Amino acid sequence: MNGIRKTVQGLWWAAAMIGLVTLPAFARMPAARAFDFSPVTKIQLPGAAGHGDWVAYDPTTHAMYIALHKSGVAVVDTVRNRVLAEVQPIADPNGIAYDRAYLYVASGSGNELVVVRKAGWQIVGRVPTKGKTPDGVWVDAPKHLVLVSSDDQNWVEAYRAGAHPRWLATYPLEPNTPKSGPDVGVLVPSLGVLYMPDDAMVEALNIDTGKVTTSVDTGVPVTKTGGTKNMVYDPIRNLLWVGTTAHKTLVLDATTLKTVATVPARGGADELAFDPALRLVYAFEGSAKGFDVYNADTLRPVIFVSTGVGNTHTGAVDLSNDRVYAYEGDADAVGVYTPFGEAGTAK
Questions:
Q1: 319: left (phi over 0), alpha (psi -120 to 50) or beta
Q2: For residue 68, how many C-alpha atoms fall within 13 Å in the half-sphere facing its CB?
Q3: Could you tell me the domains of the chain?
Q4: H-helix or E-strand containing 98?
Q5: Based on the number of CB atoms within 10 Å of its own CB, is 82 exposed (0-12), middle (13-18) or buried (19 or more)?
Q6: Are residues 69 and 52 in contact, defined by beta-carbon separation less than 8 angstroms?
Q7: Percent of the chain, pLDDT > 70?
């Protein structure tokens, strides 16, 4: 029964994060245990080794969607830990989001939003974006809305979801003249807010009005790869965890955007992930060849997990079993890790 309950909780939580259901207030399961991260397996990916860009977990298909280096998206079956499909061609894929029927993938060099039907994993639509180098993609399922940010334009584009997304509006971001521009934030449908990193800033974009309502300059040094990076949202404590290029992770009050904690990071982070059942936050850090693990309640580091592979800069968590899928770019593989030691490696 514990396994069934945990699977259901994982489905509910992930669905809540994309707006398919409303998250109940009692969903918290505190992390009152020690963790021992061990490798479970390594899944070889199609294509060439290299940077890649994004990993997204989908509980409805029991799959990880992985943006591959240079072209394509791999669909990894997390039940059998194997590649289920390779979706091609998608030039320089960046962000990935999904609803019940489709994947929405940003093609960086193609300057388009690519739509993939889950039934058969076939490309069914390509929509040119208004801006160049589209990066982040988010879906608000109840609003039938797809949001796309562009690396080379300081805005977010809104589209009507579906096989052939229809452009609706463009929402400007701050600052007016960025040095690096926006990265990939986090959409919180229950709040109607897309939290965005932009240079050293974190800003709250109201997706109903298209206006930035709150913003803060974190003071993080802005490099050629940016300053503030990807985020995750903890609804229990109303906190944003913000990755940075500055070897630290910021924790912000999601209402005021004031910093409540700063925790060390082994390297500069690219993608963050959150396991609400275990109350663990993950920061994937390519230059550090691994990922940092944080306790979402104590706001302190738990452990650094080394993969030994460069470009381990993105990843996600299977919420049904708490396994971490770390994209190991230089090995053209996904490493699967359990927080429960050797006892948790049984397939």
A1: alpha
A2: 23
A3: 2-344 (2.130.10.10)
A4: strand 93-98
A5: exposed
A6: yes
A7: 89
- Name the DSSP class of 341: G
pLDDT tens per residue, range 297-340: 999 999 999 999 999 999 999 999 999 999 999 999 999 999 99
Distance CA 121, CA 119 (A): 6
Determine how many CB atoms are found less than 10 A away from the CB of residue 196.
Answer: 28
Q: What is the pLDDT of residues 39-49, one digit of tens each?
A: 999 999 998 89
125 token code pair: 């639509």
Tell me the pTM: 0.90
* DSSP reduced 3-state for 322: coil
73 close to 96: Cβ distance less than 8 angstroms: yes
Question: CA 105 → CA 72, 219, 275, 301, 342, distances in Å?
Answer: 10, 31, 24, 32, 36
Specify the 3-state DSSP secondary structure of 2.
Answer: helix
